[in-house]
Amino acid sequence: MTENQYYEQEATASEFLEWYKTQDIKKYEKPSVTIDNVIFAFDKKENQLKLLLIKRAAHPFKDKYALPGGFINPNEDAKEAAKRETFEETNVKIESENQMWQIGAFSTPFRDPRGWTITIAHTTFLYPFVDPKAGDDASACEWVSIIPAENKKQLPYFMTQDKKIIHLDQDLAFDHAQIIKTTFKRIKSSLTFNADVAKVLGPTFTSNQLKKLFFYFDPKFNETYNPSNIVTTYVKRLEIFQKVGQITINEQSSGRPKTLFSFNPEQENNV
Amino acid sequence: MTENQYYEQEATASEFLEWYKTQDIKKYEKPSVTIDNVIFAFDKKENQLKLLLIKRAAHPFKDKYALPGGFINPNEDAKEAAKRETFEETNVKIESENQMWQIGAFSTPFRDPRGWTITIAHTTFLYPFVDPKAGDDASACEWVSIIPAENKKQLPYFMTQDKKIIHLDQDLAFDHAQIIKTTFKRIKSSLTFNADVAKVLGPTFTSNQLKKLFFYFDPKFNETYNPSNIVTTYVKRLEIFQKVGQITINEQSSGRPKTLFSFNPEQENNV
DNA sequence: CTAATAGTGTCTATTAGACAATATCCG
DNA sequence: CGGATATTGTCTAATAGACACTATTAG
What we know:
Two copies of one chain form a homodimer.
Chain A lengths: L2 H8 L2 H10 L9 E12 L4 E9 L8 E2 L2 E3 L6 H13 L9 E7 L10 E10 L11 E10 L9 E3 L5 E2 L9 H15 L16 H9 L11 H11 L3 E7 L11 E5 L8
Parallel strand pairs in A: 1-6
Antiparallel strand pairs in A: 1-2, 1-4, 2-3, 2-7, 5-6, 7-8, 8-9, 10-11
The structure holds a DNA duplex.
């Protein structure tokens, strides 16, 4: 019996681990592992949903837009890494990990021309909306407006603050277009039982805000859709939201006061 | 301007990549990246759904059950790795990647006591059902019967061929219990619009087989559930399945012949 | 024919979606 | 009061689920 076999099969678990640390293990080649973050926030001034993109300062994909992201560190899990990297690259602080979902790992060979890199994509429903500040890797960092798809065949696209259009299939670095598309799909298909995306609206929101927000992900929430149906579905049936007694007086020009909703604290995340 | 800055910002993309390859890049510490595979198959002899588990031959988690899996290689994506490792460890060959889903990355620190390891979990809807053969890392490798949860509060559990019970929270190595739970949840929540899991049934299947299969993931498909409702939902409305004219004559003892269904080839995967 | 099994049609409850009617506020 | 805005109630269509009834086959 080899020493190896002895420790793997005969020794106790703790003896094995003691021995294992002393071994110079034959190293497999390892990939770099990064995280990327598809960050949504709602700009109340302009009354629209925005996505946080970086403009790359350096090769590869110099001058293309990209998602904030970076390397994962030992002793942190992917979500922590996504929080940390988002802050380092954009100065945007994510308060809670339950504003984040993992979308999945993207591992297509050669997705990064520099070498073997796997990314774990996340999405974040940020609140409050804050101005970003570009870190080292970016020449710029900005909230881009999302132009929602008008029907099922179309894709959303984006517009920078100086009105430049960003198309998913042309203007993004790496496979970030695919990551963004997967994120939109995932949010849409979970809207039937989950509304975490509403976290971008902050602690309270109205049914009309929800409708407007959901429209970015699913064209069925269009002009003809009655916001009261959101109440029926998400408040009465699913009980994801609850009415909070308050009613705003006069932030609007006139009209019946809005009802405010918040997340129902009894609900848990499920994605 | 440093050389670094020149190549990152002034040179062309291909000049940059040429230069990059010659550099001895400061290495970040990298994790090992593995894949794991939650493999389902339907055993027609015993008329039940089974899950493929390995019994670990070596520390850590010696003698615990684990999912087939292993290291991802350069120049392959995660799904290819999952196919390759499944074959190496269990001799089970997965024919097509559209029998597989990615479940997600699991990256909790110290999930592997030997060191920093991130896994990308997959699930596979295998067909045909074949006998496995344990590879090196396993003392055994077997199809375990799945005992479905009877209501929403319960978890499924498993039974080995010699009737030993495997509980998710006690008998599995690493975080594989969590991976399996996440997989069951994911399949269940996508059953409203997707039925890829039916790929375990092979090219054709009956509505009763579908009902029995779905019950493993959602207790609503219980004895009182009428299989004709599956036809209404998945054939008529979603058009995921189609009737294939054939009707089996006499594989059953008596009774009206079954209608056979297959996947509708116009449909694409969407998860 | 009878037992066994599968499929059909129908009925009810729930859910989704649209729209008319009503409520509230501002000036 | 009248215009603006929001919510409520109701109506219809779509969907989910249950169950009685009918169809087919073996023996």
